[in-house]
Amino acid sequence: MASISDKGYGSVSKIIWLSFMVGSLNFVYAADYETLITQARDQLGSNQPSEALKAADEAVLANPTDYKGYYYTALAYISIGKLDNAELALNKAKVLVPAGNKGEIEKVALTLKTYRQIQNADNALSEGLVGKAARLYEEAWNIGNESPEAALKAAELHVTRLTQPVDAARLLRQIKASGISGPVFDKANSLLQEITPTLIEIAKSHVKKAESQSGADALASLQKAQDADPDLIDIYTKRANIVAVGDNIGAMKEGIKDLSKHNLAEPEMLEKLPNIAQWVKQPQFNEFLYDLIGKTKTESLLKILDERKNRYEKAIADYKTKLANYEKEVAAVEQQKKADVVESDLCTKKCTEKHGGYKGYFADQEKLAICNATCIAPVRTLPQKPVKPVESDYLQ
Length: 396
Description:
Serine Threonine Protein Phosphatase 5, Tetratricopeptide repeat, disordered N terminus, mainly alpha, 396 residues
């Protein structure tokens, strides 16, 4: 009788055995793969990019169809500065990544773009292109705010090489606002403190310039002042006064919001703004005030404006009365001046006739001179015209 092996069942048993072994091997590979991925991640976190690259490469070999091996390979290459290699690995990860994990790849793509720009900035600086280097470092920071070191480098170039403290301050403030901590934050804070006196003087000079300007020119100067020193209070009070004169409600709202951010949006301050009485008549602006300073302060402002209106209206009534009296007095003086002229002429005529007239060799010239002096019309002064009240003169 033929054996099972002779009938070919031996081959089947071999296949079964091999299938078991392959399945076991895949299980081992799967276990090793996850271990390698964890190892690569941990080594990147502990600043061991070379070791992380080795673990990630092994992970790719263990499972070339999963994106994570390529993902960590790309991160490792970025960390050691091999950006072209990083891009190749990242492109493979993009093909394999599940839809739900695409955000991870996009974030690494931003990181890669940032480091490429830093590399470009380094190259520009090595060529002596300081201005270009500063711009590229800033662009690297702006890609995703992932490299405060790049922002700090740009700021340092603006201060030490380019004499552009305002541009430096903008970047240093961004670093401080990013929420990072550590040496970069400390250096940024120290450098900002160092250039603050210069920034204050620059801001004050722009504010002074704005005082001799109007409209868009004045607003542009105030913006430059704010770029230099955003804590200078005069910037916001002057800006609010400028936009209050116009008719742009959006600009007016922004001006008032700036006052509020600096704790200046008090009724006593707002009441002094030009045309504020007209602004509060607009329902949209009135609603904005309630949102900005609340019901109590808004109503306090409205009360102040009502009282000012009453004072102004009373002043106008008084002015009209005074103006009517003034016009009567002027008419009386003018009438009297005409009478004075007539009387003067008559006096002169009589006097000259008495003393022989102005002609003739025998006229008494001395007495004629006395006639002229005696008969001259008196000087009559007009009363002072009352000044019409200006509403702004009746501020609280």
